[in-house]
From TrEMBL:
Residues 1-21 form the signal peptide. SUPFAM superfamilies: Invertebrate chitin-binding proteins. PANTHER family: CHITIN BINDING PERITROPHIN-A, CHITIN-BINDING TYPE-2 DOMAIN-CONTAINING PROTEIN-RELATED. Keywords: Chitin-binding, Disulfide bond, Glycoprotein, Repeat, Signal. One of its GO terms (molecular function) is chitin binding. Pfam families: CBM_14 (PF01607). The lineage of its organism: Eukaryota, Metazoa, Ecdysozoa, Arthropoda, Hexapoda. The keyword Cell membrane does not apply. This is CSON015615 protein. GO terms for cellular component: extracellular region. Residues 21-79, 82-133, 135-193, 213-270 form the Chitin-binding type-2 domain.
Length: 272
């Protein structure tokens, strides 16, 4: 009886938040949300509506309900060892441009700005050619050609075939260009494999002594823009705020809830 009450309570709580919709297959009722275990989709008449589990719970794909993280198989949701207090950054097994922000013991999925990847050694978003991340993620089904760089060899790259990376080589003297997805001369390709020194500013919280402050919601984890500077944003955890600074050259996008290049953020235009 207690288990039934728990499931019912979690499901009812989850339905309070509806935003994104996806297509559901016949017979599906609840489906996992990609790369964020705290969310799931509820299927109604073939349409899946985004839902969120209550704080502290994850969606269990095996049982189709919000559950304690300790009850969920790691093949569905990797377990991240987040410190109880403070801030930390962890890589994910999914993609190089994604990472996990450990926020006072709570893992929060994050994405680097376009053109950047999370480097697990220095725990920062850096230029793709400077990243030590070696995850090769090919889409399972794609009508377009997908290329991936070889970060350890400027003269080679990968092409995705049926979801698998297949190694390829440029002609002698040519390097792979990430920007143009083709082999070019060394001067124009801009490849810097084997060199991991080009890093953007760390995604570190500003020291607690800062005079910046903001009113946070009392419950849950939220990310809010700084009211004065577009390069800064606040992370809120159950009413407690932390001020963060985006990597150099980027600014906070409240719609996407991530740092993107400044020229894509309208509220930064006055700085140019």
């Amino acid at each position: 009886m207690k288990r039934i009450a728990l499931i019912l309570g979690l499901c009812l709580t989850g339905f309070l938040q509806i935003s994104e919709a996806v297509e559901c297959k016949d017979g599906e009722t609840f489906i996992p949300y990609p790369k964020d275990c705290s969310k799931y989709y509820s299927c109604v008449n073939g349409v899946g509506y985004e839902q969120k589990c209550p704080d502290g719970f994850w969606f269990n794909p095996a049982n189709k309900y919000c559950d304690y993280p300790s009850n969920i198989d790691e093949k569905y949701c990797p377990k991240y060892e987040c410190p109880v207090g403070g801030i930390d950054y962890l890589p994910t097994p999914y993609a190089c441009n994604e990472y996990v922000l450990c926020f006072d013991g709570t893992p929060v999925p994050q994405t680097c700005a376009e053109g950047l990847e999370f480097d697990p050694l220095i725990k920062k978003c850096v230029l793709i050619e400077s990243s030590t991340c070696e995850i090769l993620n090919c889409p399972e089904d794609s009508d377009e050609l997908v290329f991936l760089p070889n970060k350890k060899d400027c003269g080679s790259y990968y092409i995705c075939v049926k979801g698998q990376p297949v190694p390829q080589s440029c002609a002698d003297g040519l390097h792979w260009s990430v920007a143009n997805s083709r082999c070019e001369s060394n001067e124009t390709a801009g490849c810097n494999a084997q060199s991991f020194k080009i890093a953007l500013a760390a995604m570190e919280p500003i020291p607690a002594s800062t005079t910046f402050s903001i009113a946070c919601p009392f419950f849950g984890i939220h990310f809010l823009p700084s009211p004065t500077e577009c390069e800064y944003y606040f992370g809120c955890n159950n009413g407690k705020s932390h001020l963060f600074e985006c990597p150099a050259g980027t600014a906070w996008d409240q719609t996407k809830k991530t740092c993107v290049y400044k020229n894509l953020v309208e509220r930064c235009f006055y700085k140019y």
